[in-house]
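Worked example (supplementary).
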Amino acid sequence: MKCVKKLLLVAVFTAVAGAAFLYSGVYPVGADVEHQRWVYWLLETLRERSIARASQDIEVPALDAPELLLAGGPDYNEMCASCHLKPGKDNSDLSIGLYPAPPNLSLGSDQGQSGDDAQSAAARQFWIIKHGIKASGMPAWGPTHDDQRIWAMVAFLQKLPDLTPVQYQILTARSESDDHGH
Amino acid sequence: MKTSKNTCLLAFPLLLVTLWAVAHDPSEHAEKNVKPDCAAMDHDGMDNNDPVMQAMMKKCMSEKSGSDDHHDHDHDHDHDKGQQDSAASPRAEDSPASDEHSGHGDH
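After joint prediction of all chains, the assembly is encoded as:
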């Protein structure tokens, strides 16, 4: 009985301390002050577990067709490169100013490239592009773009780390003929 | 009374926001008619099975044929004609010429 009382006291104290901290306003919320490491770890773990769970049943279509690269390239260049950069560009106002920082998608990732790993990495990217990530700069593109267009960007992302600036320019140029579906 | 005044105060910023949203319609700020820099393509060690290479070839081929049957566009696609016309003229003047030259230089 005494033990229960003690536990209850600790719980109440923790809740009050937590509320005091919350309302005190001492936690810095500006994007130019980094999180404490443990806060970052908490948020990152929350994000990665949530994405892994949500994307586990996504079926990844074939992503090798050159048509997909030609569809995804111009979209990436127009909608994503300002934050996620491109070959030959290693920072931008947005890549520097946002926190959490948008990863440079033109650099290879440390994710595995083979078999299942590659599949789940593609599913993860698809999910992130479609749904975005709360309280980060990453928008949800799903409400305004259909799945096919998002898969094309995923296909482009698979090749992006290997592209030279010239290859990037050719694949992403949005020319007149593209719009007419020749 | 007070609320209606506030509504008026809101209206102007709202209008601005709306205009801003219109200006940022993706199709508006999309960089149309950027020419792929096909002349700079590196043909050395190219692998025809590589999707990237195939995609670049496709892009550059369609770019060439695109400028050949270019008058077709006018009656095929009446929409956004103004845009096309203004875009077509600088294209006809400089770009194909420079492509042509570098193309011959390579071979």
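Two points are worth noting when inspecting this output. The interface with chain B takes residues 64-67, 69-70, 73-74, 77-79, 144, 159, 162-164, 166-167, 169-171, 173-177, 179-180, 182 of chain A (CB under 8 Å). Residues 2-24 of chain A form the longest helix (23 residues).
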